[in-house]
Structures are given as structure tokens and as C-alpha cells.
Amino acid sequence: MSSRRAVRERLLGRRINTMAETMKIPVSITLNGSIVRADVEPRMLLVEFIREVAGQTGTHIGCDTSYCGACTVLVNGRPAKSCTLLAVQADGWSVNTVESLESGDTLNVLQQCFADKHALQCGFCTPGFLMAATGLLEQNPDPDDKAIRKGLGGNVCRCTGYLPIIEAVRSAAVVIKERRS
Amino acid sequence: MNAPFRRKEDNRLVRGRGRFVDDEGGRALHVRLVRSPYAHARIRSVDVSAAEASEGVICTLTGAEVATLTNRFMQIAPPPADQVIDYCMAPDRVRFQGEPVAAVVATSVALAVDAAEKVRVDYEPLPVVVDAVESLRNETLLHEQVGTNESWGSLFEWGEVDKAFADADTVVTIDRLKFHRFSSTPLETYGGVVTWEASGRIDMLCNLIQPGVAMKFMAPALSVSPEQLRVRTQDIGGGFGIKQNLYPYLMIAALCSRKAGHRPIKWIEDRREHLQGSAHGNERTFLDIKVALKADGEITAVSATHIDDCGAYPRYEPLGGVIWSQVAPASYRLRNLRINFRQAMTNKCPVGPNRGFSRMQNVWFLERVVDICAHEMGIAPDVMRQRNYIPEMPWTTPNGCVYDSGDYAAMLAMAKEMIGWDDWIAKRDAMRAEGRLVGIGIGTALDSGTNNFGQSTIVNPKSGLSGNSEAANVRVGVDGSLTVIVGSVPQGQSHETVAAQIVAKELGVPEDIVRVASGFDSERATHTSHSGTYASQFAVTSVGAIHGAVEKVRAELLTVAAMLLQKQRSELRTGVFGGVAGVGTADGGSHVSFADISNLINTKTAGLPAELEDITLNCRYVYRAPFQLPDPVRKYGNLTLTYAAQVHVGVIEIDPLTHNIHVLDYAAVDDCGRVMNHTIVKGQVIGAAAHGFGAALMENLRYDANGNLLTATFSDYCPITMLNMPNIRYGNRESPSPFTYNGAKGMGEGGGGPIFALSSALQDALAASGARLNQSHYSPSDLHAVMTGAPARGVAQVSATRQRPI
Ligand code: FES
Ligand code: FES
Questions:
Q1: How far is B188 from chain A (nearest CA, A)?
Q2: Calpha distance B740→B281 (Å, rounded)
Q3: Which of B299, B529, B743, B762 has the fewest beta carbons under 10 Å from its own?
Q4: How far is A38 from chain B (nearest CA, A)?
Q5: Position A172 in a domain
Q6: Torsion from C-alpha of B598, B601, B603, B609, nearest 10 degrees
Q7: What pLDDT, in 10s, does the model give residues B425-443?
Q8: Does the pTM of the predicted model rise above 0.80?
Q9: Domains and CATH numbers, chain B
């Protein structure tokens, strides 16, 4: 059995019966401020909804056991791994992805700091880190190293060795604080 | 570099607007592979009827069909291992867990997955061999027609080994050292969108990182010309060498496409598939190690048997069987070496050239030898290294490789100073007095770059590969901008940024008028058979090609400008004139813009003077590294062009309760010659170091005796995260390479520095116990076994025999 089905079964709390699963359920999710409606199979993951139904491909998939965080989005303002949620669970929720961060053509502070500090190389993990860091800074606007490591400990980056990411988040916190005062 | 750091790639990537392979193929059909749960089994039958009747299914493909539709992959090995039968899908027998046996094509991923679960495969399990040393006893053969599990083996001997042992003051023997199996597991898995078009062209949009070599494997297997394959890449989510082994899967997708009526097929591997079936790093066991030493600690000879484990099918191997010898003596002046190198096939995932490929294993081996000998001789590990480091550059190794530049002793001194060596020694001793287990270790890593493919003739004189090359193209646009195309296949290494930086600097124009169209395209972009991003070569091959193309474009620009301005070419230079990129005189009194020159050649072409007929402003240059074929009998020759180096020093503590290893302090000094971009180089060093820490502390591809991979998900494999990544003090030295035009060397593989330094520090932490550690990876339970004296494989049997009174 595929491990992705195992995740789905764990989430559904029961064995998947293929016939029944082809029945579709209507969902309506506010994605980056716009309502997206679709009839989806109950087994569809939120990340699949975001990428395949809504066509927003900035949110990535890096694993099948909720380890890597490449799929991190904000669900009702809080960071969540969108591969651990079903699209049907998110019915009526508000979901924000990396595509929501920029305003017009301008990068937001975190995006700019990631670029400035060389906190990305291939960039595959970056959307997930940006969303996790957005959630972290909302909860804790002045995180020390330890808080950053803890807050982003559920995200994997295979390229940067993490230290530049810690630096980027710290410098974003400073910039945001300066702008507020 | 005083300007703020900017990468051309980042603007799209931080917006989530990168274009990765999984973002493409919207109209494609999807394929799901059925993979073997057994590590070794005969396939009695494959029944796809239920799958084919399943909703949304277009077609299926079985291994038996593959065997009729394709040829087996060519083998790099000479006889008898050239007889290995390797298809992109197993026809009648599986040899590793996760090997594909059937494919199901459907209109969606979910329907393909549903149908794939209905494929019935009847297996007859066979005996399994997972240990390379055991495999060489040939009790269970993987490929009967080969007659042995040895994919390749040869004796490498240089210098006067017997004499060195006879003259030695002390001989140290070590029974066994073991470099474990791990992988850098790029965050983006393998994937492709493949169409076998009705015209015969096969279009492969994918994340392959060494297309030229992969095309060499695929084309004959598919009975097509390599030129019929259009291989192209876009953004790639990390590769680290592992994505070299993607080609069997692209072939499956191609065959599915043809069977599905030439429709595009999308295949994206999931993480379990990646861990079980993509590629792993080489695992190596070192046996019967003998070291000859002088009384002062100088190592004069080493002999050993190296047994490499390449998994079930050699694929890119046995090239690793010679690539290690690029760094045969590691960073040491050692002149006498006898290495019996043997490579075994086992019932495990095939290996691929993972970051640090084959050299890292050998350098780890010699670093362990140096540390163990230092302990036996009672010499401090830093002193031991200083006595043995290569004393001058360039240095010709006993096997004819030429180390270009670097000063390892100075790098060690720098790393020691950065970490506060003397203070740490005092602190360590004080902590030990309190009963704490603290150790300090050193790792000297080498990152040899720009490999001479001619070394393949040492493995097989008929390899048909030699040299190394790369192509670049620079074009002047009608608006005066410059477009650069290069054959490299970046996966995060910032090639767009560095290429633009070089072109801008050489022509004296701003970087923002330079556009780099990155991404490989065998049909529409420039490339050579060696193109790709692997073996630390961008800084030499791609940069060499870009430099050559810039020189050609410059010459053309000057020719046209000289005519327009009525000047001698020698009076003119490129640069910015009146705020615009152009060509002009040194005083700027007379100039013409790139845009005007380009329009003359491309737009207003009527009446173009005959002297300008050959001008294109679209110039291609092929850089060829200055290599000769090595002598395959003596196994002698220059195998690689540049040698970047790193010295790492780390302090660790073992938690007495959990046996977790904590890094207390760490310094890494890098020397990759002239640095083209400090931020990017530092990024590569820290990134490579994370792979080393991960490998030493967490990541281990562990198999049970039945060939089940026990770490087949990220949650079991546990790639290093921010929670475990230590802080690093970073230092840089620049020893320009005399062999490259700008003094830069290839870098980025990192060579495994933290694995060496942590092995060394662990050894030091447990020195008092007398245990000599022999593995590159210790889980807490492994360490517990070592520390409680349980009979464990994690300890080497070491002896030191003094042959001469001192
Ligand atoms: S894809 Fe969601 S955590 Fe890895
Ligand atoms: S930048 Fe490549 S995985 Fe993080």
C-alpha cells in the first residue's frame, strides 16, 4: 500500500474503500483571499487541492510522512502542513500560501531577508519555510535562535544548512520591529 | 564584493514562482509504479488484468514487455560484469526492494495508485545478500551469467610498499573500518514529463543533472540516436549527484507514452520510492589495514583492501572504483600505497554519485588511519597531521594526480585559532575530570573538481569516454542586453548569478543587462556530451566556456565598432559609455552602443559590408579541460584538474544518558582558490557541512538481513533539521589555482568534512576507554554498545608493533 494512502487512512480514521471514495464532496476554500469551489474526492489532500485544483504551485511536496514542511501554509492564520489535512476538512477555511506574501511586485520583509541572507539555494523548501516563519513571527515577534530553531524544526532544507535561514528570520524580525516603531 | 548580495534566481523562487518539474505537465497522464517488496525474488507472474479494467486506466507496462521493447543498459564494467542484465524495469527477477516490476498509466495520480494496487505479482523469494564482504564469497549470486558478485576489482599499487614496511619503525594494523550508506536526499524527488512523439522524438522534461551521460545510457537501450532524445530541465529542487540515476524512470515513462498513443506521461516519485529505489551513496568497508610509520609519526605506506558496495546494478559504477584515486593519498605526502579495491553487488538500492562521490569515502579512510595511528603513537592529532600534510604545491601524487594549490597546515592553524584550540583542550580536560565525555576532532577534506573522464579507461580500456568539456553561448540582443546560455544544470548552485557576474565583469557592463537562460535543453540550448552539474566543475568548465564565449563576442563587438567609429580595434574597449553599454575609446570620446551594433547585424542588414559577413554576435565556445588519457596499466595520470580543500575542527560531547552526540563548537575553513562570490561559496560550505553532520549523527540507510530498508521514510531516515544543525565558524583562504584562467576551483561537494571531524572527535571523547571507533555513523544505541563494551561491530581491533627501537 502506498504510504500516501496510509496517511489518508490515518486522517480518515478508517480503511479507504475505493468505490465509496470516488463519490465527490463540494468544498469551498478561501485561498489567498479568493474563494475556490470544487467537488473533490474525500481523500484529496489540502496540498493537492492547492496545487492541482487551484493551480497554485508554490506550495511543494517533499515527503509522505509530514516530516519535511515543504507544504506548509497558513490555515486560518496558523502554520500547518497541508499534506496532513484533507481538502474536505478545510471546507470553509481560509488558507494562505507563499503566493500571498508579495504585494504587487514588492517582496515582503521575510522574502527579501531570505534573498539577502542567501537563505535559499534551489528554493524548493523556501515557500514552506516562509510560511512557517510567517506563523512564527506572528506568535513571537522577537524570537531568539532557539525559538527560531524550534519554530522551524519541522521544515527540511537540503541545500542551505539552515544557518542562513536562521539569520534571515532574525533579520526579518528586526526589520519588522523597526517598521512598527 | 561590496554590493549587496543578490541572486538572479531568488526573485522567482521566494515568490513560489519557480518552475519545477512537478509544476508542469497539466495535460499529462500519470504513471504509478508497482515495486517489489522483496529484495531478491524471481517473478513468477504479473497479472495486470484487474488494473487494466480499473477506472481511468489507459494502459499498463510490465517488465516482461520492457525486455522485448528495449535493450539492456550498457555496462561500464569490463567482462565479466559487462554481462549484468539491467532493464529499466525488472522482467523476471527483482534484485532490490523497490525495484519496479510494472507501471500503470491512468488519467489521474489517484486512479493510477488505485489501479496499481490491483496488479498481482507472484514472487518466489530468493536468498538475500546485503553485506558486501559476504557478497564477495559468491554464495548467493545476483547475476548468474556474470558468475560473481564482483562488479569490478583491481590492485592499485604505487611506490615501494614492501620496502616502506621493511624500513618502518612502527607498523599499525587495523582490522576494519566502515563508511556507511546514506544519501543527500534532495527535497524534490525524481520526476519527469515525457512524451514519445509520433515523429519519433522523445521529449523529456525532467530533473536529471548529468544529461549527457544519461543520454548515453538511454539511447542505445531505446534503439534511438541520442539526438532523438530531447532532454530538458528547468528549476531543480536539489540534486547532489543523486539525480544522475533518474534515467531508468524516464525510460519507463517514455515507453508508457508510446503505448498510450504518444500522450505525455507525468511521473513524480514519492519519498518512499525515492529512499527505496532512486540512488544511495556508496558504502565502503576497509579491511586488513596496515600502516608503516616512522618514529616521528610520518606515515610512509598504507596497504588495505577496500570493498565498495554498489547495490543491485552498477549503473554509473564501477567508475567510483577509480574516482577515489583522485585523492589516493588524501591530503598527505604519503608515497607508497597498495589498495586492493573490490566492488560488490548486493541486494540493495543501486548507488549514484552522491555529493563527495567516492573521494569522500577514501579521505574518511585515511583520516581515520591518521587518527588511530596518532593515538597509537601518542602523538596529538593536529601534530600528526602537520607532520604528514603535503608540504608544497603543486604536488604530484604517487598516481600522477597534480594537486594544484593550497596550504593545509595553514588551514589547520586557522581553524584551530578560530575555535580557540588551546582553550578547548584545557576545557576538555577539565570537563573530563568531571566525568564528562568530550572530544575534539579534525577533518581534512578534499573536493577534487573537473574530472577527467579518461580515468574510466582504468576501469575499462574500452570505456569510450575521455576528457571533460562544457559549452556556453553569449548573444548580444537588439536592445544591447546580453543573453548567456550554458550547458550546466543548476540545482541551487546559483549559476545564473555567477554567470551574469562573470560576463558583466569581463565586459565592464552592469549585471542587470545580462540575462542567463538557465536550464538544459539538448535540442535548443548549447551543450556538450559532458554537460551537467556534477563533480564540482562549474567554476572551471562552465566558467571557462562562458569566458571563451565572452572573448569571442568581445572580438566581434570590437570589429564592428572599429569599422563604425573608424578606429583601430586596439584603441577600443567594451564598457559603459554615456550610461549605456557599448564600445568606445578609453577617453570615451568616441563610442557606439551594443544596441546599435546588434541592430546593424540583426535588423538593418541591407548594405552590410563584406568584412562583417561572418559576425553573428551570437558566439559559442567549448571549453575543454587540458587532459591526456591516463596510463591504465600503471593507473597513473592526472585524473582531475583542481583540488579545493577544507579543514574542519569540532568539539563534541556525548550525553551519558541518551548517548546523543552534541556539537559544542565547530569551525570550517575552506579554500577553493580564487572566490568568485563569497556568499555563494559560504552557502555551499555550510550546506555541504549539513550533509556531513546529518550523515554522521542521524542519516543511515539501514537494511535488515532480508534486504528490507528500515529507513524508507523521512520520519525514519530523519534528514538533519534546524534542531540538530550546529553553529559553524566559517573561514576562507584563497590559494588561486594555476590551472584555471581566473584561479577559481570547483567546489560545493564539501568532501564530507563533518563526517571526518566528528569521527575524529568521537574517537577522542572515548580515548580513555581504549576503544578505537571504526564507523562513520553511530546511532545512540551503537554508541551505547561501544561504551558498555558489548560485543559490537563499531570497534576496530588495532595493534601497533614497534619494529625498531627508538
Ligand atoms: S510534504 Fe508535507 S510535510 Fe513533507
Ligand atoms: S534551498 Fe534547496 S531545499 Fe532548501
A1: 6
A2: 30
A3: B529
A4: 16
A5: yes
A6: 140
A7: 999 999 999 999 999 999 9
A8: yes
A9: 21-126+189-236+242-277 (3.90.1170.50), 151-183+279-454+630-802 (3.30.365.10), 469-624 (3.30.365.10)
